[in-house]
Amino acid sequence: MVRQRVDVAAARDLAEALLTDLPQRWAHTAGVAARAVELCAALGPAMSPADRDRVVAAAWLHDIGYADPVRDTGFHPLDGARFLRGAGWAARINALVAHHSGACYVAEVRGLHHELAEFPRELSLVADALTYADQTVGPDGTRVDVRTRMTEMLSRHGATSDNARVHHLRAPDILATAARVEHHLHLATA
Ligand SMILES: [Fe+2]
């Protein structure tokens, strides 16, 4: 029987076990999880306790696809989501991991859009909060703004990378996501 669980502590433990050999990725992951906790608290009633757990668990798990035991296609959102599905994680967590930070655009250029479609893309504040947390924490775990993060990502991946090829589609999507989250943050503090 498939377990349908959203266990934040288990998500953290799994991420730590898988990413120990990738210290910078682990630092980034811990930073994104901390950012997610802070963000969900700041969103107040806009985020239910169950959804807070979903965002934070997905934040811990979003980059496990980079770990050697998880890597399969080499596209980390898809590899992470498939690994979690196989381990019996909740379908929404798997799908959040699959689609974090505009993964659908990169999947298209890599010819993996059919594979990514195994997981439905959730359009919600939960999904937005995960992407916002990821896009406001740099590779070393430090806080950055969304535009700085995207500029750094492009220089890290290179001008001919898959990320660069879809940047004209992905960047506006991520900026729109950030605007929605910041609107909710504004409402929560108004
Ligand atoms: Fe990330």
Structural features, described:
It comes from Dactylosporangium maewongense. It holds the Pfam family HD. The protein is mostly helical. It has a single domain, classed as Hypothetical protein af1432 (Orthogonal Bundle). Helices cover 66% and strands 0% of the residues. It has eleven helices and no strands. It is globular, with a radius of gyration of 15 Å. The N and C termini lie far apart (46 Å). The structure holds fe (ii) ion.
Indicate the CATH architecture. Answer: Orthogonal Bundle
Whole-number count of domains? 1
Order of helices and strands: HHHHHHHHHHH
Share of residues in strands: under 5%
The major β-sheet equals: none
Our count of helices gives 11
Question: By helix and strand content, what is the structural category?
Answer: mainly alpha
Look up the CATH topology.
Hypothetical protein af1432
Cα separation of the termini: 46 Å
Q: Which geometry do the CA atoms define?
A: globular
Number of strands: 0
**pLDDT under 50 segments (min length 5)?**
none
InterPro entries: HD/PDEase_dom, HD_domain
Protein name: HDIG domain-containing protein
Pfam family, one: HD
Give a brief description.
It holds the Pfam family HD. With 190 residues, this protein is an all-alpha fold.
List the helices and strands and how they pair.
Elements lengths: L7 H12 L3 H21 L5 H13 L14 H11 L4 H8 L4 H7 L3 H4 L8 H11 L10 H12 L4 H4 L1 H23 L1
